[in-house]
Design a protein that fits this description.
Helix content: over 70%
Low-confidence stretches: none
Number of domains: 1
Oligomer: single chain
CATH architecture: Orthogonal Bundle
Largest sheet: none
Distance between the termini: 58 Å
Structural class: mainly alpha
Shape: elongated
Mean pLDDT: 91
CATH class: Mainly Alpha
């Protein structure tokens, strides 16, 4: 760890280590002692700041959600039509993956897959991301097809997005994002053309 890194508050070092390790290696597979070594923090500091490893996971997810929301907000600011707003999740994902992350996987999906029965604090962090996704997709779908047909369109575009995330594990990220965006556009076209 560099001297500059050690100057950061221990809480921030722990969150950075959680990001670097748990969301790449897996939240279950990453032992606390590895996080402590990477962060240069003590166990007492981790427990004082987060209460437990699950508390650290929840805080790291909350930080991720804030960063993801900022990336999506930026993509939304570039969108000029209702269809572009509905599709904005794909340019946001592209920007988020290349400008902010080093791994191929979604921290929320990975955590949900790894922890069958999450603690209340981890479950709350997962719900917050799910709520952001479902509310925005429903709102933007309503702009495109109206409120009655919005749930079906939002669900299908969200499914294309989830397929993109899985594809990013198995093949080239650019190809996966482009394919997911193309699929979502075709879905939208089918709804608009009806």
């Amino acid at each position: 760890m560099t001297t500059a890194s050690r100057r950061r508050p221990a809480r921030e070092r722990l969150l950075a280590a959680a990001d670097d390790l748990m969301f790449v290696e897996g939240v279950v597979l990453t032992p606390v002692d590895v996080i402590l070594r990477r962060s240069g923090a003590s166990a007492a500091t981790l427990y004082a700041n987060f209460g437990s490893k699950d508390g650290l996971i929840a805080a790291a997810l909350e930080r991720r959600l804030s960063e993801w929301t900022a990336a999506w907000d930026s993509a939304l600011a570039e969108a000029t039509t209702p269809v572009e707003r509905l599709l904005s999740i794909f340019p946001a994902l592209r920007s988020y993956q290349y400008d902010r992350l080093h791994e191929r996987w979604c921290a929320f999906s990975g955590t949900a897959a790894a922890i069958y029965e999450p603690t209340p604090e981890v479950a709350a962090a997962l719900r917050a991301e799910e709520q952001l996704l479902s509310e925005r997709m429903l709102d933007y779908a309503a702009e495109v097809v109206g409120p009655d047909r919005a749930p079906a369109l939002a669900d299908q575009v969200t499914t294309a997005y989830f397929g993109t995330l899985v594809g990013m594990l198995r093949r080239d990220q650019d190809r996966s994002i482009l394919g997911g965006e193309g699929t979502a556009r075709a879905i939208i076209d089918s709804f608009v053309g009806e």
